[in-house]
Design goal:
With about 270 residues, this protein is an alpha/beta fold. The protein has a domain of about 150 residues: P-loop containing nucleotide triphosphate hydrolases (Rossmann fold, 3-Layer(aba) Sandwich). It is built from nine helices and ten strands. The strands form two sheets. Strands 6-7-8-3-9-10 form a six-stranded mixed beta sheet, with helices on both faces. α6 links the parallel β7 and β8. α3 crosses α4 and α5 runs parallel beside α6.
Length: about 270
């Protein structure tokens, strides 16, 4: 469902070139949750933006459900649901109006949108506030609406960028349950986060990014065998130590830190 092949992206700062993403490759199958993990500045969000078609790669390609993001960005966006911690809502629309509006934007038929709305109302427990204006919702209720919005057009692929940022334990649990629902629905899922402990709870496979490169990837069992450690935090710390000893650790920064980097809402 998702294929990333030798993906590269360069940026310039004070006239000097550096690679925010440098030769990243991985695949995600239907019904699989892939954790794209690493510290802030590792290149995770830059990679995600290229998969979404929001940034043009300088090398390699990303393919979504058979469509390459560079050649068919609209087809790619139509097949992706995107959840970001910074996503907002139209405050003067009710939850029902907002969800049906986004279904229409994605080109869903009215009967399909109505069925999706009914299903998501049940799955995400929206019934108590479905006809309230978004401006009146609590933080937790807004979170559920953002999750529903990304699924209203029933996309086969879901991308979640730091979905638990700023959330408490209860809010984070909603995200975990949501990811399990996506997996049960057979969707291909990428979870992009620096919270390795949380990713270990929900992901089937992991890609550990460092300095713009995918340092290691595989299942937890495979990573445990290679590193000799039992959890992702210790595995990643070992990668950093190995790079420091080899003198390979770069000072690479993701596009989050570049002035003028695109902040876009996927529609």
């Amino acid at each position: 469902m998702i294929s990333v092949v030798d993906l590269r992206k360069r940026f310039y700062r004070e006239g000097e070139e550096f690679w925010a993403v440098d030769g990243v490759s991985f695949e995600v199958k239907a019904g699989e949750v892939f954790g794209l993990l690493g510290p802030n500045g590792a290149g995770k969000t830059t990679t995600l933006r290229m998969v979404l078609g929001l940034l043009r790669p300088d090398g390699g390609y990303a393919e979504v459900d058979g469509f390459r993001t560079r050649e068919a960005p609209d087809e790619v966006k139509a097949r992706i649901g995107f959840v970001s911690a910074g996503a907002g809502l139209y405050q003067w629309l009710t939850v029902r109006e907002l969800l049906l509006f986004f279904a229409d934007v994605y080109g869903a038929l009215p009967e399909d949108a109505a069925a999706a709305l009914e299903n998501l109302t049940d799955v995400l427990d929206l019934g108590g506030f479905i006809d309230q204006r978004c401006a009146t919702l609590s933080t937790g209720q807004k979170q559920r609406v953002v999750l529903a919005r990304s699924l209203i057009h029933n996309p086969p692929i879901m991308l979640l960028d730091e979905p638990t940022r700023g959330l408490d334990v209860v809010g984070s649990q909603v995200i975990f349950e949501y990811i399990r629902h996506l997996q049960q629905e057979g969707k291909a899922v990428i979870v992009c986060t620096h919270r390795l402990d949380q990713a270990q709870r929900v992901c089937d496979r992991f890609g550990l990014m460092h300095a713009g490169q995918l340092a290691h990837h595989g299942t937890l069992e495979e990573l445990q065998r290679r590193s000799g450690h039992t959890n992702l935090v210790d595995i990643f710390l070992q990668i950093l130590q190995d790079d420091n000893r080899a003198g390979q650790r770069g000072d690479v920064t993701s596009s989050d830190d570049i002035d003028g980097a695109a902040e876009a809402e996927v529609v």
